[in-house]
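Example record for the data management plan.
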Amino acid sequence: MSYYKDKKNVEEYIKMAEGYDGSEFVPVLRQYLSDGATMLELGMGPGKDVDIFSQYFQVTGSDYSQVFLDRYQESCPDADLIKLDARELNIERTFDGIYSNKALYHLTREELRQSLKKQLMLLNPGGILFHTMWTGDGAEEMEGLHFEYYTEETFTELLDEGAIVEMHRYTEMEPEDSIYFVVKK
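Corresponding structural encoding:
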């Protein structure tokens, strides 16, 4: 995961991700979370979704990369940010929702299983997890990064507790190349 510790790689990622954000998920999230609810974003990257969701929720941004956190903090000095490893989730706070947009697919399936278990423990009663993934089956390594792909079945198998209340395929770059999951505690 050292890829995102390099400023050059972070800047390349930001250029590549230009035009992509989680704005289309606002209506879905607002079905499950009331305005003002607390939300933790795992893997906030450049912080586009923190900006969007902060219009509705009390958002805490987190990332494993200090480069992303420092970059965002420069433009938003009052932002609530935490350096956080999604595998460990060493945090003493709870949230109404935990969100990630194509960040957790860098974890192996076993790491994601453990992360989901820990995430559910960080949720307030009735809270939700909302995660997007690339669809497919299998895994690959590129430039030192791990990538896992999921179907409805392979993601569901990772949940030891919590109930999937919604899952939906959608198009980001190619038809139905992406999927989101809403898991309720």
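Summary line stored alongside the record: The two ends are 29 Å apart (CA to CA).
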